[in-house]
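Field notebook, page 344. I keep forgetting to write these up properly, so this time I am using the form the group agreed on. The chain and the ligand, 2-acetamido-2-deoxy-beta-D-glucopyranose, are recorded exactly as supplied. Prediction of the bound pose follows.
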Amino acid sequence: MHFLKSINFTSAFILVTLIVVLDFVHGFTEKNVIDSPLLTQKMGTNRTVTVDPNGQEDFKSVQAAVDHVPNGNSEWIIIHITKGVYREKVNIPHNKPYIFMRGDGRGKTSIVWSQSSVHNYDSATFKVEAPHFVVFGISFKNTAPAVITRKMENNKSVAVFVGADKVAFYQCAFFSNQNTLFDYKGRHYYDNCYIQGSIDFIFGRGQAMFHDCELFVIANSRDEIRGSITANYRQRHSESSGFVFVKGKVYGTGDVYLGTAKGAHSRVVFANTYLSRTVIPHGWTNLSYPGSTHNLYHAEYRCHGPGSGSGNRAHWSKQLTDVDAAPFLSVDFIEGQDWLPAWL
Ligand SMILES: *[C@@H]1O[C@H](CO)[C@@H](O)[C@H](O)[C@H]1NC(C)=O
Ligand SMILES: *[C@@H]1O[C@H](CO)[C@@H](O)[C@H](O)[C@H]1NC(C)=O
Ligand SMILES: *[C@@H]1O[C@H](CO)[C@@H](O)[C@H](O)[C@H]1NC(C)=O
C-alpha cells in the first residue's frame, strides 16, 4: 500500500513536471514567432481591404487594391490577400506609404510572374518603392528560366525589388532562378523568410538584416561560374549599406560563396548561422572585382555546420570577435526599434 502510494506520487510528480515543461516550451515558441495576429494588432488600424482571386471580395488583383490606397496615405491600411495564386506584376509606388500587406501564409498566398530582362528592375515581379511597407506570409516568384551564358550581360529575373526605406518582410518566400532579391536601397528587415536562388541572388546597396532566414542555393555544381549568395554594393566607408544574416541557415545544391565583392567597401556578415557543405571552403570571392580587397567587410561570427570551417577562407575575410560582432547582432543595425512593428 505504502509502495503503491509512492508510485502514484512519483507519477503525479512526473506528470506535473511534464506539464510545466510543455507549457514552458509552448510559451517559449509562441513568444518567438511574429505571426499575423501580432502584426495586425501592432498596426492598430481597422482600415482593411480584401483581395481574393475569384473576385468575391473588394478586389480581384493585388495591384487594384494598391491603386485604391490614396496618394500620400499617412495611416496604416491593411491589404489582406487571401489564399491563391495571383499572376500579376505588382508595384507599390513611392506615394503610397503605410501599407501592411497580409497574406494567408507563404504556402498559401503567392504573387507570380515570369519575366526576364537585361535590367533587374524591369524584370521584377514585385516592386516596393514606398517607405513604411510591411508584408506577412506571401510567396513572391519570378518563374522565368535562367539564361546563363559566359557573357556578363545575362538576363535577370528578379522576384522582389526593394527600393524604399523602412520595409519589413515577415515569413515570406522569394523564388527565382536568377537574381532573386534586389535589395536596392533603404533599411529593411526580413524575419523567418525563405530565399532561393543561384548566382549573386541577394544584391544591391540596401541596409538589411535577415533574421532567422533560410537561404537555399540551387547552383548547379557543373556550371563553370560559381555563384555567391550575396553581392553587396557598398562603395564608400560612409555608406550605411550592408547585409547581415543572424541565425538561420544556408543549404542547397552545388557550390557557392557567401559573398562576392561589388563595391570597394562591400559589407556582409553571417552570424550564428548554420552553413552546410554547399558553402565552399574559400568562403568569399573577389571574382569579377578588379580593385583592392583591403576595404571589404566580409565577415563571419560563430557560424556552425560543415561549411563554416575558417581554415581556408579568403585572406581578406574576417572571423569577428564578440566586440566586433555586437553592432550587427540586433535590429539596432537598421535602427529597427524606431520603425519596426515587431522584431526578434
Ligand atoms: C475604427 O473605425 C471606427 C469608425 O469607422 C473609428 O471611429 C475608430 O477610430 C477606428 N479604430 C481604429 C483603431 O482605427
Ligand atoms: C532578355 O531580355 C530582353 C529584354 O531586356 C528580352 O527582349 C529577351 O527576350 C530576354 N531573353 C530571354 C531569353 O528571355
Ligand atoms: C583575389 O582573390 C584571390 C584568391 O583568394 C587572391 O589570390 C588575390 O590576392 C585577391 N586579390 C586581392 C587584390 O586581394
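OBSERVATIONS:
- The radius of gyration is 22 Å.
- Residues 146 and 177 are 5 Å apart (CA to CA).
FOLLOW-UP: compare against the apo run.
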